[in-house]
Design goal:
The protein is mostly helical and 132 residues long. It has helices at residues 4-27, 35-42, 55-65, 78-88, 103-107, 122-127. The protein contains six helices and no strands.
């Protein structure tokens, strides 16, 4: 009989606190845009931060808030960006990608700085004075 009163007291307190937490969670719930999960699901999920956002979820929030353009994601392909634009009711234009042109080894021949005689691998040659 001595143990019955503490068990009932703790059970009653647990019930009261449980009901209070359930009411508080409904009353203070944060409403999110339902499109947020859809946009985040279309993104690659690499969380690289190349867009300037805090990962893909941060980028999706910024796009929905109008803080960033859909083009800011460097990892996504044009098809993915187009799907996101259709989901948000926006238009996106396709841009041509810039490609770096290498002049030293790509187009113009530069003279050799030294004659290398040693281990025949690119790594070993580059370790000596940065290679040819």
């Amino acid at each position: 009989m001595d143990i019955l009163i503490p068990i009932l007291t703790l059970g009653f307190l647990g019930l009261i606190f449980g009901v209070g937490l359930a009411i508080a969670s409904k009353r203070f719930a944060v409403q999110l845009d339902p499109r947020l999960d859809k946009v985040h699901g279309l993104l690659p999920g690499s969380n690289c931060g190349a867009c300037g956002g805090a990962g893909c979820l941060g980028f999706a929030e910024d796009v929905l808030g109008g803080k960033r353009s859909i083009d800011a994601c460097r990892v996504s392909s044009y098809a993915i960006k187009e799907k996101i634009a259709q989901l948000l009711g926006k238009t996106i234009e396709q841009k041509t990608r810039s490609v770096a042109a290498l002049y030293c080894y790509g187009g113009k021949k530069v003279g050799e700085r030294f004659e290398y005689r040693g281990i025949e691998s690119c790594v070993a040659a580059n370790l000596l004075l940065g290679g040819q």
